[in-house]
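Backbone-to-sequence.
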C-alpha cells in the first residue's frame, strides 16, 4: 500500500496536470511553467498582466502563451544570459506587443545575446509588485553565477544560481512564505543545496524544467535531497506545461 506522503504528492501532481491544457483568458491568477524542454520559461499571470521569467529552451509553447497574455501588459524578467533562458524571446515579441524589460543582469555578454532583447524599453516600477529580486549579484565571469534570483508570490525562481551563490542569498528566504520552487539550473547537482532547503521549510512542490533523457536533469542528488525533505518533484518532460493557480 502506498505511503501517505506518496499519495499526497500524487494528488498534488494530478490537480496541476488537469489544468495544464485549459489555457483561457479567465484564469484568475497563478503561474505556468511552460514545457520548453531543456530551458526555462515561467509566466505569472493576473487579470491584466503577465510576467515572464526567462524565455528559452528546445521548444516554444505555441499559441498558448498568446491566448494567455496577448491582451495584457507583459513584463520580461531575465535571470542571466544563457541561451536556454533567452533564445525564445524573439518569438515572444512577435506574439506579445505590450512588452517591457525588468532590467538586465550585470554580467557581460555577447552582442548576439543582447540583440535578442535589443530595443525593448524598461518597465515602469510597479507600486504593488507581486515579484521582487532578492539577489542581484555583482559582475561575475561565469554566467550561472550571475543569475538573478526572484520571489514571485509563493514561488522561488533562482535561475541557474549555483550552490556557491546560494550561500550569499539563502538567508533572505527566512520568513518568506515560499511553497514552490522552479529548480535552479534545471535540477542540476550544482544547485538546490541543503542550506537553501533548510531556509525555506515551507516548500511543498518543486518543478524541473529539463530533459532528463538527454542531460540527466534533475540529477539523482537533487532528487534525493528533495525526497529527504518531503518535497514533491514534478517534471515538465513527463507532464508538459503546468499551471499552478494561486
Amino acid at each position: 500500500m502506498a505511503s501517505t506522503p506518496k499519495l499526497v504528492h500524487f494528488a498534488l501532481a494530478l490537480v496541476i496536470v488537469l489544468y495544464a491544457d485549459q489555457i483561457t483568458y479567465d484564469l484568475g491568477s497563478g503561474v505556468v511553467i511552460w514545457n520548453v524542454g531543456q530551458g526555462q520559461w515561467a509566466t505569472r499571470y493576473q487579470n491584466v498582466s503577465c510576467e515572464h521569467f526567462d524565455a528559452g529552451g528546445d521548444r516554444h509553447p505555441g499559441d498558448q502563451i498568446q491566448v494567455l497574455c496577448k491582451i495584457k501588459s507583459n513584463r520580461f524578467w531575465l535571470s542571466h544570459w544563457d541561451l536556454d533562458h533567452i533564445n525564445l524571446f524573439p518569438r515572444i515579441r512577435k506574439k506579445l506587443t505590450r512588452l517591457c524589460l525588468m532590467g538586465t543582469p550585470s554580467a557581460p555578454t555577447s552582442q548576439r545575446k543582447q540583440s535578442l532583447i535589443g530595443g525593448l524599453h524598461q518597465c515602469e516600477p510597479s507600486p504593488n509588485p507581486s515579484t521582487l529580486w532578492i539577489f542581484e549579484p555583482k559582475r561575475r565571469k561565469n554566467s550561472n553565477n550571475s543569475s538573478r534570483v526572484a520571489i514571485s508570490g509563493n514561488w522561488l525562481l533562482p535561475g541557474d544560481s549555483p550552490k556557491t551563490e546560494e550561500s550569499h542569498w539563502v538567508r533572505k528566504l527566512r520568513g518568506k512564505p515560499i511553497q514552490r520552487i522552479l529548480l535552479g539550473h534545471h535540477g542540476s547537482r550544482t544547485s538546490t543545496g541543503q542550506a537553501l532547503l533548510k531556509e525555506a521549510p515551507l516548500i511543498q512542490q518543486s518543478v524541473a524544467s529539463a530533459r532528463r533523457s538527454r542531460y540527466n536533469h534533475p540529477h539523482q542528488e537533487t532528487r534525493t535531497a528533495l525526497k529527504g525533505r518531503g518535497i514533491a518533484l514534478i517534471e515538465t518532460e513527463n507532464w508538459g506545461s503546468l499551471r499552478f493557480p494561486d
